Amino acid sequence: MPMLLLSALLGLTAPADTVPKRIALFPLPLVYYTPETRLAYGAAATATVRFRRDADFPAARPSQFTFGVAYTQNKQLLVYLPFQLFYDHNNYYAYGELGYYRYNYYFYGLGENEVPRELYGVNFPRVRLNAFRRIMPALRQGKLYAGLRYQYEDYDVTTTVPDGQLASGAVPGGQGSRLLGSGLGLFFDSRDNVFFPGKGVVADISGLVRNAAAGAGPTGQTTYSDRYTADVSSYHTLHKKAILAMNYYASYTVGTAPFNAISLLGGTRRMRGYYEGRYRDQNAALLQTELRVAAYRRLGAVVFGSVGVLGNGQTALRLGQPKGAYGAGLRFTVNRRDHLNLRVDYGFGKESSGLYLTIGEAF
Question: Residue 220: CB partners within 8 Å, gap ≥ 6?
């Protein structure tokens, strides 16, 4: 989501880089401004954790938890806890998000049918859980996991633009919906570092079947959909101070899903430079690349670009109507041991741009 975000980091001179610790904590006070929120303020804290059970296992991967709270002049509230967890010599892996949001977003229409942007209000709790167990332990080139996925989101649309698309009932879930779904997943990981890989591949394959969305139909009935996604990233060391990262993403929806649960492009992770959800449709495919260069001590720089396409039930992907974005950014390493970075990016789209500040890489 494009925003002007100012931040100051506290406690970054703690000796976590030189003295091994099982927990490293980084508090992050936040002040930012957007047209939707006006002035917003809050705090976040990111912790990297190594469990006691893995104390005798040097190859144990660090877990990460981030907790944040923000409040705005428009009386909006955001409370969120994303996490990723490695446990028992990397034999178990879990990630997801717990959160509650009282917020405003812009809606730009579905597919290529753009509409004048509509500002709508929404309250929703969100639960996303993914739990995996390592399989095929003899695999030498990486770690392969299989497991279960679960999602829940009660999307209560509180305000819409009068006579707009959402208010008309023509958009599935435009007046609110309650989404519940589960499915299976595969996860493959051969990265040499979780937070800042220099080589390897990570692939996250998901199939959520028979997702029920209560209230998403035009008369408030329950609709059902399946969603299949593949999120694959590869990392290539070009020089001791230069890394090329590439991300390939595809999302395919079958059935009728609420507009907030279909494929989208834009935001802090996919196609920076566009508002999150600037483009929505049943299907989407995206290719993005990023060149990451070490500059001086903890400071690094990146340039990035992306191209994406949308599709639906009639045309799986409209390859003749691509969308592109590009940009550049800076990195500051807040935890040298795990190479966890503070990320500052500025992205440009065809008709928009955005500043992004967060912890961790886009992919």
Answer: 175
Q: Tell me which of 116 and 319 has the higher pLDDT.
A: 319
Residue type, 37: T
Query: Is pLDDT of 290 > 80?
Result: yes
Three-point CA angle 188, 44, 302, nearest 5°: 55
CA-CA distance, 188 to 232, in Å (whole number)? 9
| Residue 184 near residue 151, CB atoms below 8 Å | no
pLDDT score for 142: 86
Kindly write down the DSSP assignment for every residue of 296-320, as one continuous string.
ETTEEEEEEEEEEEEE-SS-S--TT
Do 352 and 279 meet the contact criterion of CB atoms below 8 Å apart? no
Question: DSSP states of 186-228 as a string?
Answer: EEEE--S-SSS-SSEEEEEEEEEEEEEEET-STTS--EEEEEE
Tokens linked to 131? 């739990």
- Percentages helix, strand, coil for the chain (3-state, rounded to 5) are 5, 65, 35
In angstroms, the CA 309 to CA 229 distance is 15
Question: Which tokens in the block code for residue 346?
Answer: 């500025």
For residues 25 and 10, is the Cβ–Cβ distance under 8 A? no
Dist. CA 349–CA 304, nearest whole Å = 12
- Which among 108, 166, 111 has a CA at the least distance from the CA of 312? 111
Residue 201 tokens, joined: 């591949």
